Automatic annotation (TrEMBL):
Superkingdom per UniProt: Bacteria
Provenance organism: Dyella acidiphila
Family statement: Belongs to the histone-like protein H-NS family.
Stretches for region Disordered: 61-89
Swiss-Prot/TrEMBL keywords: Cytoplasm, DNA-binding
InterPro entries: H-NS_C_dom, H-NS_C_dom_sf
UniProt main location, coarse: cytoplasm
Subcellular location: Cytoplasm, Nucleoid
Domain DNA-binding protein H-NS-like C-terminal, residue spans: 61-109
Designated name of the protein: H-NS histone family protein
Length: 109
């Protein structure tokens, strides 16, 4: 299929590029799926399970969920029960302490 690129305007070129990239992604996913099936078939043919070969490793693309809690990094000097790991949105007490002139290292555990 030959396309005369010089005859296409900007929006037509953009559309062609996005369609070509989408098709390229489809082909890659198909190829990866076929390869994954071949590898799993080889493992099974030898009498092993995926976990025997790769241990507890997750297959590529699997998301890690619920990995546990993170140790707190900061503590509220006014209330020792309030802590923050340094991840996610800053708690109000942390922001208020910074506005009051404290530094992050002052709040560190």
């Amino acid at each position: 299929m030959a396309v005369d690129l010089k005859s296409l305007n900007h929006s037509q070129l953009t559309d062609l590029i996005s369609k070509a990239q989408a098709r390229q992604d489809e082909l890659r996913k198909e190829k990866v799926g076929k390869l994954r099936e071949k590898v799993l078939a080889m493992i099974k043919a030898e009498g092993y399970a995926f976990e025997d070969i790769f241990g507890g490793a997750r297959p590529v693309g699997a998301k890690r969920r619920g990995t546990g809690t993170v140790a707190p990094k900061y503590r509220n000097p006014a209330d020792a029960e309030q802590t923050w790991s340094g991840r996610g949105k800053r708690p109000r007490w942390f922001s208020d302490a910074l506005k009051a002139g404290k530094k992050e290292k002052d709040l560190a555990i």
